[in-house]
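Chapter summary example.
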Amino acid sequence: MPNHVIPAPIVPVIPTSTGSDFPVRRVYCIGRNFAAHAVEMGHDPDREPPFFFQKNPDNLDPSGVFPYPPRSTDVHHEVELLVALGKGGSDIPLSDALDHVWGYGVALDMTRRDLQGAAKKMGRPWEIGKAFEHSGPVGPLRPVSEIGHPDQGRIALTVNGELRQEGDLNQMIWKVPEMIAYLSAYFVLQAGDVIMAGTPAGVNAVARGDQMEASIAGVGALHVKVV
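The structure predicted for these 227 residues follows.
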C-alpha cells in the first residue's frame, strides 16, 4: 500500500456509455473557437493562434446539478464538445491526432463572467472565473467505436426551453486534430486528458432554478438544473 501522509485524492471520472468510467487527468479548454462567439466577446473573428486555459479535473461534474457559485452575480453557460484522449504523446502529427481520441461528450464551461472580466482587465489568469467547483457539468462519454469523429452537427443549449446557443461543429475555427497537435507541442499529453473544444455564440446568464439542456447531434444531450 502507498505510504501517503494524507489520504490520496480520489481520481475524478466521467461515466461512459460502455458502463465503465473514464478517469480524468487534465482539462484543457480552448478560448474563442467559434467566430460568432469571438465577436460577441468583443474580439476579432479572424483565425488567430489558439490559446488554452485549464479547469481542474474535479471541476467536471456528471451529477446533472449545478450549484450557483459564490462571489458572483453573473454566471454564464457555454455549451461545448468534450474530447477525451485514450492515449497521449508529444509533437503529435496532425495526421495522427484523431488516433489519440477515445471518445466524445457534451459539456458546459460554466463561467463567473464578472470575475473573469475583472481578471482580464488586470491581465490576470482566468481560473477564478473558470476553474471553480462544479464548473464543468458533463454528460456520459461515447467512444469513437460508437459514433466516429463528429466534425459537423448542431450544437445547442436551451434554458427553460428557450434557445440560447446554436451553432455547428463545422464552425469551429480550430478543429479537433489541430487542437491535439497544437497542445502536444507544448505539453506531454496522456490518456485521461480531455479538451473542451469551444462554444458558439449566445452565452448568457443563468439563475437558480433554471433548467439547462445542452445537445450535440450524434454525441448526446445533457440536462442540468441550477440550484
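To summarize the output: Residues 176-186 form the longest helix (11 residues).
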